[in-house]
Structure formats: C-alpha cells, structure tokens
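User: Predict the structure for this protein chain, please.
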Amino acid sequence: MPAIQFSPNATALTIAGSDPSGGAGLQADLKTFQQLGVYGMSVITLLTVQNTQAVTHVEVLPASLIRDQLNAVLTDIPPRAIKTGALGSADVVRTVSENLKDVSCPVVVDPVLVSKHGHVLVTDDVVEAYRTHLLPLAFMVTPNRFEAERLTGITLSDEHSVAMAIKRLQHFGARNVLIKLGEVSGRSHHWMNGENPGSRPEEARLFESVRMPTNNTHGTGCILAATITAKLALGETRPHELAAFAIQRVSEAVAVNTHLGHGIHPAEIRAMSRGDAT
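Assistant: Here is the predicted structure, written as structure tokens:
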C-alpha cells in the first residue's frame, strides 16, 4: 500500500453528521480526505445512534453551535473545498448557507434527504431550504435517485426525465449535478450535466460502471462526494473528470471486503500516492 503524501495547503471541510460505527458521515469523509492526501476538518451537525444494521436515534445540534463551529474553522484554517452532508433541519440548512455564502472555495452538496433504499429522512421544509438557500451555493450537488426526485418533483423513469431533473437542479442554482441513479441492467449508472451550463437536457452524460455483487456499500454516497471535495482541494475543477475519478474510487472501495459489522458492510477507500491522487 502506498504511503500517503499530503499536498501542501490542500484543506477540506466536511459539514455533516456523525456515524459512530465509522462507515458513513463525517468519519467516512475525513478518512476519504486523508487517503487522498488532503487535510480534513469537520463541523458536526447531528449525532446519530447507528451501526451497519440500523439508525435508531438522531439528535440535531443547535444551529448556534453549528454556526460557532463554522466560524472557528473558517477564520483560522480556510478550506480549499467544502462538503455538506446530513444537516437535519431547515434551520441548520439556513444557518450553514448563511455562513458559506461568502466563502471563495467550491462547495459540494450531498443532500442527505432520502436513503438509498427510498426511506424519507427529512421533512418538506428541509427540502425547500435546500432549494432556496443551499443549492445556489453548490459547485456540485450529488443526490441519489430519490433525493433528486424529491428536490425536483420529477419521477426519474428514463434518460429524458433524468436530464430534466438535472436542468431543474441547475435552475435552483447548482452549477453541476451528478445523480446517482443506481443499478440499471446490472450496471451502476450516474448521470451528469453537459460541459456547458447552457446545454440542452438531451446532452446529459452517462457514467457506467460494473455493479458488483457485494454488501460493502455503507457510506458510498459520502465517499463519492468526499472524493470530489478532496480533488477540488487538490486543484482539479473539471466536473466530468471529478465525477469519473470519484465513481472509480467508489467502485474500488466497494470491492474491498471489510466484513465489518452484521449489516451492510462499510465501503473502504484505500490510500493513494500523491501522484495517483493528483
């Protein structure tokens, strides 16, 4: 395994919830940052009681405490890229958005609204807060299929509906959109907007990868968005290159047989040398 080589001044901040089992949330984000040679920082938005089998309790932190954490980080070690994960309430979404509106670095929004299995995690006012306050700040937003449907009100049934959902998310303000559509005919599908902001809906681009028969998928959404954030911190800004690299890294993470836990095993991103990461 190659030794981790940190890139000077490559710093990234995750604003997310805590997974005490370490497979998802800010723990997965920080591990991903480190494995890619990026110095990671975190602002905790909520505490969960969870493991690989279930989430049994969620406690959202007061917005004032989240604001103070953000202020402490942003005024001391400015990040070169920021990721948001689970925010938990409309008040927290608004607070985070207010504190990020003047940052100069790119923001990756992983809208934790609906689980990969379709279970609704937040109320409608949180969805509206994302549309109104956070998406306009997003360099890239990375919803799963159900989150994209909830944010846009469009049922994703074919290529055209996916393209229209991408355009609607861009209408809300997100510069780039990467939708994790899930398995289609035995392959994992991700859809992304065209290279140009004014591209027609039909120009959305498909990324395909082999769908592995594995149970090592806990935290894959976090790893995808965190990888994109780390690459931004390292200086990569081309959306399609960011997406392709992150999708490949998730595929590699899923292939690692951790056999940890009695439920959905955590995916495990492995270290890369500085040359590979950059």
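The first strand starts at residue 11 and ends at 18.
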